[in-house]
Specification:
single chain, 320 residues, alpha+beta, 31% helix, globular, binds acetyl coenzyme *A
Length: 320
Amino acid sequence: MSIRIIGTGSALPAKSVTNEDLAKLVETSDEWIRERTGIAGRHISTGETVAELSAAACSRALEDAGRTAEEVDLLLVATCSPECGVPCVACQVQGMIGAAHAVAFDLNAACSGFLFALHTAWAYMEAGICRNALIVGAEVLSKLVDWTDRGTCILFGDGAGAVFAEYGGKEKFYFVQHSDGSKGGALTCDTRQLKNPYVEMPMEAPWIRMDGREIFAFAVRRVPEGIEEVLGKAGMTADDVDLFVLHQANYRIIEGIAKRLKQDAEKFPVNLDRVGNMSSAAIPVLLDELKRAGRLKSGMNIVLSGFGAGLTWGACVMKV
Ligand code: ACO
């Protein structure tokens, strides 16, 4: 037995922001952003919270699965941009949708968050701890972005995606996960700092800071390695894979990964042109779009791969 993903859902903020809109804020151009990243637009919150977007995505995933919130055993939210330290987003969502019987908690592995949460939910189900799970990736990164830094503010978008998975499928899932904290300085965001009666630390700007070139080099090296590792576990090669659903950071990163795996770029669906980099929300939102567009056909071999701050990266092979 294994697990099956039987429902997907997503939610994006109403406001869409184009590259031309950003060129009014910082010295940049549509041409530069498209050429370097593949991004043309993104959705930016004008009030929607991580919890609200997550709840909307969860309701759609449950509707798609034909299940009710009362039936949910485990509710996991992957995010690095919660509105508050406590309560966690998952508990907020639990209250909003009425998942009264669920165990709910958050997990932060930045852009790998959804993949790590899916692995956690899979392990809970394989261990018999729960029979089903709502797994969410959700971010409102626009509150962590320095809107005067043209190197980062052009990259990110806000949104949430969710999948509902149940124990009982025949097809096995395979996972690999990795972390390298020694390289964590390549992408940071200081949101809370030590300040108490005994110590006062100098205040750093609480914004995302990134060494773009280091992240780029990390992604095009580690992600294909992780994908080959998980394919080895599954007894498959990249040629056996129908779709590679990757974290949507940058089109040039996806192209580089396709080249290293010697696979046609058409096997790598993208939505980052419309939604930008939504960190942990990227994979579940793309999965939902693919499912609703009828592109996930029964029996397909799908590889998911998340990678990002931490540094963290991981991959999964699954059948739909
Ligand atoms: N518009 C115009 N010029 C810009 C912009 C912009 N938005 N941003 C930077 N520049 C300028 C720089 O100031 C620099 O100018 P200079 O030569 O006069 O100093 C020049 O462009 C080159 O800057 P680099 O940072 O070296 O540009 P690079 O070619 O590396 O592209 C980018 C930057 C797109 C961020 C690239 O490094 C990249 O894609 N990195 C991957 C990072 C990523 O995707 N991060 C997402 C978060 S992590 C994750 O999701 C995995």
